[in-house]
Amino acid sequence: MAEQGEKDPEYPEYREYQRLEDCEEDSPPGEDEEQLLLHVTEGPTDSWHHIKDLDSSLTPPYIYHFHQRNGFACVVLSDVLELVQFLFVVTFSTFLLCCVDYDVLFATRPLNQSHVPDHTKVTLPDAVLPAPQCARRLRGSGWLLFLLVLAGMVWLCRLVTALRRLVGYWEIRSFYIRALGIPSDELCNHSWQSVQARLLALQRRQPLCVPRQELTELDIHHRILRFRNYTVAMVNKSLLPVHFHLPLLGPVVFLTRGLQFNLELLLFRGPAALFQNTWSLRPQVKRVGARRALAQEL
């Protein structure tokens, strides 16, 4: 995507987008990699040196989001609290469905307890069912048991995802300390511009990225905001259904979190997405002759 016409280079604005060139033949996998000669500089041989996929180091859950989430301790605490919050919501919802006698709570049925006169104020303990009765009501509801099993599976998936992110965040913590020279207790004092400047200086000193000799701020921003830039471009070109015309109100924009999640899943992360990974388009998308079939499939 490029711009046409004269524009101030310091304040670029969106005007036009150019089509991708037709690509009928793609290079065989690994052809370029076999002809690439690497010069390994002296220094620590950590896992972040000579990275072939630089996107994996500059997009979530890595350098940028590690900085935005204020370091390793805040990341771990946030993930743990999210897991605890999910358990609390499921547990409390189950308690409200199975362990509360709402007839007693709303005084539609008198209390059956002994030595309790009429018109006595109902308290919360009066409306809570005993544990055995609550367990019987839970076992007698098949759909509720199914939902609890489903919620347990979702929680386990979120736990596994959190543990995987934890490993990645620990590696990035080491990267901040050993490569960028930013201790964990000083991360909050560094802006993203400062972290980015150290990252670019590290690329010049000890190459991080194999395909490029030098990184720029634009390279980093493109990798962090790639999917968002595509979304903004499609909205600007009126390709996404987010504009509606309502009677009496006129044109309105409707883009909820749920609709945004579904669009991202459809376009960027699903099995029929435009990208074959986090950084490159599928070869079929670049071919003009296959676009109509791809559009119908999508």
From TrEMBL:
Annotated region described as Disordered, given as residue ranges: 1-33
Domain of life where this protein originates: Eukaryota
Primary localisation category: membrane
Membrane topology recorded in Swiss-Prot or TrEMBL: Multi-pass membrane protein
Protein name (record): Autophagy-related protein 9
Biased segments, Basic and acidic residues type: 1-21
Function description: Phospholipid scramblase involved in autophagy. Cycles between the preautophagosomal structure/phagophore assembly site (PAS) and the cytoplasmic vesicle pool and supplies membrane for the growing autophagosome. Lipid scramblase activity plays a key role in preautophagosomal structure/phagophore assembly by distributing the phospholipids that arrive through ATG2 from the cytoplasmic to the luminal leaflet of the bilayer, thereby driving autophagosomal membrane expansion.
Protein family (similarity comment): Belongs to the ATG9 family.
Subcellular location: Preautophagosomal structure membrane
GO terms for cellular component: autophagosome; phagophore assembly site membrane
Signal peptide: none
Gene Ontology biological process: autophagy of mitochondrion; lipid transport; piecemeal microautophagy of the nucleus; protein localization to phagophore assembly site; reticulophagy
InterPro entries, per database record: Autophagy-rel_prot_9
Transmembrane segments: 143-163
